[in-house]
Design brief:
The chain has eleven helices and eight strands. It is α/β, with parallel strands linked by helices. It has two domains: about 210 residues, Alpha/Beta hydrolase fold, catalytic domain (Rossmann fold, 3-Layer(aba) Sandwich); about 80 residues, no CATH class. About 40% of the residues lie in helices and about 15% in strands. α2 packs across α3 and α5 packs across α7. About 45% of the residues are buried. Strands 1-2-4-3-5-6-7-8 form an eight-stranded mixed sheet, sandwiched between helices. β1 and β2 form a beta hairpin.
């Protein structure tokens, strides 16, 4: 894949699908280019920038803030938060940087967006890596999310998590960044209470405050619904690009859903990382980074397997 043109600034704005301004940042200068797709949707590149930044040592990595979050435009017309615009924004990123095909690394909800993009533009995807992916089936993923975030109904910890996030979602938070940080801190404590040694340093709370408020009040509520009741388990057969799914070795249901991503494409494999949760890249970097580098170079990581092989 060609090196990003040196005439393009290392950060700035590019025109999205409908000329809506999308903020981007480029790190590294390697001849191999990777496009990073964050979660949310609309959570902003700071949700995982720090954990992918080391890839800049050997690659050119393109980050961008999805519409409705980060430093990208926050549309007054919320119909512009529909899934189809997110898909076309990713295509706009490809065109802006002159990439014939893309190697893509996607995190959390990012794989749902990338899967929808790959359905529409299968010939534009060279390789895909899904990190801690949301479920390929919306209903199953929602049930798992409730299970993973459950604490006793009268728990003070639950109240500490729910109070700030409710204020953010309702749009009533007086200090969106402070409320966001309180929510993330409580969510981290819940993860630790469940035995997950979270070392995640990404955040959805990076300024500007207007973007944090907009993301929780609009984008995080509206955009997932616009993707519908997605189920990619049998709808990605036309996607020939290899897919590597990397996730922590969690519960049997969480593992089943990660395997389902790999099984959905003809050339998919999954790497379940022992002693790690959803944020395997931060908890077991000595396993995850070499796996990423191997896959980007065209080789499967030794421990990555087809789902049917792991289920035996």
């Amino acid at each position: 894949m060609p090196l990003v043109s040196r005439s393009i600034p290392r950060e700035g704005y590019l025109p999205g699908a409908d000329s809506l301004r999308l903020f981007y940042r480029v790190i590294g200068s390697g001849s191999d280019t990777v496009v990073a797709v964050h979660g949310g949707p609309g959570a902003g590149m700071n949700a995982f920038f720090v954990h992918l930044a080391p890839l800049g040592d050997q690659h050119t990595v393109i980050f961008y803030d999805q519409r409705g979050g980060g430093r990208s435009e926050l549309p007054a017309d919320t119909t512009l938060l529909d899934a189809r615009y997110f898909v076309e924004d990713l295509e706009a990123v490809r065109r802006f940087f002159g990439l014939e095909q893309m190697k893509i690394i996607a995190h959390s909800f990012g794989p749902v967006l990338v899967a929808r993009y790959a359905q529409r533009y299968p010939e534009r995807v060279e390789r895909m890596i899904f990190l801690g992916a949301s479920a390929p089936e919306r209903a199953a993923g929602a049930a798992l999310f409730r299970q993973q975030h459950y604490v006793e109904p009268d728990s003070a910890l639950q109240a500490r998590m729910l109070e700030p996030v409710r204020a953010l979602v309702s749009g009533s938070a007086k200090d969106p960044i402070a409320a966001c940080r309180a929510y993330e801190a409580a969510a981290t404590e819940i993860a630790r209470a469940r035995g997950e040694a979270s070392r995640w340093r990404g955040t959805t709370c990076a300024p500007p405050a207007e973007a944090v408020a907009y993301y929780y009040h609009f984008t995080a509520r509206i955009t997932p619904d616009s993707f519908g009741n997605w189920d990619f388990t049998d709808s990605l057969g036309n996607v020939k690009a290899p897919l590597l799914v990397i996730a922590g070795d969690l519960s049997s249901e969480a593992n089943r859903l990660q395997r389902a991503w790999a099984a959905a494409v003809p050339h998919g494999r999954v790497l379940l990382v022992p002693n790690a949760g959803k944020a395997a890249i931060s908890e077991r970097p000595e396993v995850v980074y070499p796996a990423i580098e191997s896959f980007l170079s065209g080789q499967w990581p030794v421990a990555a397997e087809r789902p049917e092989e792991q289920s035996q």
